[in-house]
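> example.struct
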């Protein structure tokens, strides 16, 4: 048999499988599991969006679109970004429709990163960031953040991490997995640091609409940041459209043209039905989006109360739909906690170390689940934590 292991790209060979997917797969093989693992809305895509897709199929819209996306959708995206975030883009050359934000992120990295370039990655962060930087030929440089600093990266940390090889900075606020948001003043300080060293900023703002306290600050809206920022946004979270795989990038025409060049040789275009559905979402479904966001906010408060009742310190998330409690009192690592909770109580969460070493000691819990599911999941989790506390206390009493 052919030995493929010796023939694979060494970079691919060294990348670990996603820590999120591992627990998702484990949970899918068990009965009675409540999954708080995957970051996916429990809402169905609004009916008008689904209907727009069906109608498009009925009219025979089954063909390619322009590589950069339907002109009408790009115009709607540009209008939405200007209205919601205060940044103006020309839909003819500064907006690119992609297959989800994941593709947009990959395109952005491959468009700007040359072999050996360093990319600053604040952690804990989404599991794809470091692998995608490596796959683009770059070197991810981790900037760890902690519970004590509210999981917000500071301008000082950015300045200290910069070397002559630093090319870009990744930002994702509201944060996956912590739910942290960055106040405008702190983002402005980061912007000054980025400008002083001429860094490109890739701003993944997929959770921008899911901001519960104050208003989201779009990084590109900060003074002088529009033309050095690649803004990434999408429809998956805010409009409950994860399976449609539709996102977009906005930025300076030169970088969008470079991204489109890669896109036209690899993906060609996003599916036309998904593009027409996304257009309907922007035109007519913002009220439904706001209702979903209000529900997430309600659940967020339930989650914070539940972790407080269990005695697990929990950073109060200001955005996204994740909580990131500290599980140190249980005496378990984050992987042990997640595995035992799944096996003993059938609740799936994601170990914090899946999001980088600075996530160790925490687990990520998605509250994009119904109130009934969350209530039951937290009953089970409370039993589990209480047992672990008794075990830990017993060992301490025995001097073990």
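> example.seq
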């Amino acid at each position: 048999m052919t030995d493929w292991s010796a023939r694979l790209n060494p970079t691919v060979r060294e990348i670990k499988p996603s820590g999120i997917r591992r627990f998702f797969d484990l949970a899918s093989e068990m009965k009675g599991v409540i999954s708080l693992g995957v970051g996916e809305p429990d809402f169905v895509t609004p009916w008008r969006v689904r209907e727009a897709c069906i109608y498009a199929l009925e009219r025979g819209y089954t063909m390619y679109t322009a590589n950069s996306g339907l002109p009408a959708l790009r115009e709607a995206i540009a209008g939405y970004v200007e209205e919601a975030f205060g940044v103006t883009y020309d839909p003819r050359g500064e907006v690119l429709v992609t297959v989800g934000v994941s593709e947009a992120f990959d395109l952005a990295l491959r468009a700007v990163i040359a072999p050996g370039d360093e990319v600053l990655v604040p952690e804990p962060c989404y599991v794809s960031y470091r692998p995608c930087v490596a796959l683009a030929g770059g070197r991810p440089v981790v900037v760890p953040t902690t519970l004590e600093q509210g999981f917000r990266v500071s301008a000082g940390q950015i300045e200290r991490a910069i070397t002559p090889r630093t090319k870009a900075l990744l930002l994702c606020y509201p944060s996956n997995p912590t739910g942290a948001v960055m106040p405008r003043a702190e983002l402005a300080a980061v912007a000054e640091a980025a400008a002083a060293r001429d860094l490109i900023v890739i701003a993944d703002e997929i959770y921008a609409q899911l901001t519960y306290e104050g208003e989201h600050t779009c990084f590109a809206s900060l003074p002088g940041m529009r033309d050095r920022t690649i803004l990434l946004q999408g429809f998956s979270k805010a409009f409950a459209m994860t399976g449609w795989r539709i996102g977009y990038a906005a930025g300076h025409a030169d970088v969008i043209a470079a991204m489109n060049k890669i896109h036209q040789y690899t993906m060609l275009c996003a599916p036309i039905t998904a593009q027409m559905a996304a257009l309907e979402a922007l035109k007519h479904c913002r009220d439904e989006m706001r209702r979903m966001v209000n529900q997430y906010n309600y659940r967020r408060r339930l989650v914070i109360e539940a972790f407080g009742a269990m005695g697990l310190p929990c950073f109060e998330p200001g955005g996204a739909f994740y909580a990131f409690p500290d599980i140190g009192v249980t005496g378990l690592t984050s992987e042990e906690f997640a595995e035992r909770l799944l096996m003993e109580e059938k609740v799936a969460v994601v170990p914090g170390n899946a999001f980088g070493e600075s996530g160790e000691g925490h687990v990520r819990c998605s509250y994009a689940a119904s109130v009934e599911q969350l209530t039951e999941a937290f009953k089970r989790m409370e039993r589990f934590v209480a047992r672990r506390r008794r075990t830990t206390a017993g060992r301490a009493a025995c001097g073990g």
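> remarks
The first helix runs from residue 10 to 14.
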